[in-house]
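Input (structure):
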């Protein structure tokens, strides 16, 4: 089990990035548009840098929903390889069987 503080910090980042997503995208669009005057683009860049760093989507870590493990996480399932194996062995995931040859 991961440290609870790390899991909570990541949840805070997810909420912050979801809340400020549209604002960040609008400012990025202004910054990247070459037709807009340089001064306006610069002001948009400053506003973007004033936003909290944790509101960026890249700061969010993929963590296991069950254990909080940060590595070896399947994005589609949002669980780690270890938790997937345990659930599979318990028979809680339909269609998943342990391979043997």
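Output (sequence):
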């Amino acid at each position: 089990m991961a440290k609870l503080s790390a899991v909570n910090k990541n949840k805070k980042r997810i909420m912050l990035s979801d809340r400020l997503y549209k604002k960040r995208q609008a400012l990025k669009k202004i910054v990247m548009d070459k037709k807009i005057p340089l001064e306006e683009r610069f002001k948009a860049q400053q506003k973007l840098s004033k936003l909290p760093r944790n509101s960026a989507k890249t700061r969010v870590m993929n963590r296991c929903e069950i254990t909080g493990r940060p590595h070896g996480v399947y994005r589609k399932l949002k669980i780690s390889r270890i938790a997937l194996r345990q659930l599979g062995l318990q028979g809680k995931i339909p269609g998943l069987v342990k391979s043997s040859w």
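Notes: The chain has a mean pLDDT of 94. Residues 1-61 form one domain.
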